[in-house]
Amino acid sequence: MKSNLVYEELKLPYKIHDEPYAAVSILVYKEKEVLFIKRSNDMPTHKGHIAFPGGKKEQSDLNIVETAVREASEELLILKNDVEPFGILEPVDTIEFKYNVFPILCRLHKKPESFNRSEVQEIFFVSIDELSNQQNWRFRGIYPNDWIFKIRNETLWGATAKMTRELLGLA
């Protein structure tokens, strides 16, 4: 992967967590773009937010990587084989929930042709170069590390912005 991305290589066996958690897939396409979704307004949490595909652990998930890949597959209507996990970032503790969100970096082998409209309103591909440019970020300052990034008319903020900045070495 491009050297300007900052992450830890995934190693087998993947981490298993018994306590409740969530995992997201940071999907990188052709080492040039990152996929973001706009969550559906019908979702129980984070309605309409810009996010990475992801969600809570389900009973059938054996580990955090399986959770991230399953969620990406379900939300983007893609095959699990189209997602290749390769890295991990530090888990993020969200304010809204009392458990960790594990960001899993994955290569996306082909762009989704559709998406699950009950969970996703829209998908965006943003260039890594654009995301890496500190000039494109604005410090809002409502809380520490409150950086925002505009994607069309949408605002990337919160945990997803924090993960994105960490990935790009802007944290």
What would you note in describing this structure?
This protein has helices spanning about 65-75, 130, 160-165, and strands spanning about 10, 20-30, 35-40, 50, 55, 85-90, 90-95, 100-110, 120-125, 135-140, 145-150, 155. The radius of gyration is 15 Å and the shape is globular. It has one domain (about 10-130): Alpha-Beta Complex (Nucleoside Triphosphate Pyrophosphohydrolase). It is of the alpha+beta class and about 170 residues long. About 15% of the residues lie in helices and about 35% in strands. The mean pLDDT is about 90. Strands 1, 2, 3, 4, 5, 6, 7, 8 and 9 form a nine-stranded mixed beta sheet that branches. A three-stranded antiparallel beta sheet has the order 10-11-12.
Quick overview of this protein structure:
It contains three helices and twelve strands. The protein is of the alpha+beta class and 171 residues long. The protein has a single domain, classed as Nucleoside Triphosphate Pyrophosphohydrolase (Alpha-Beta Complex).
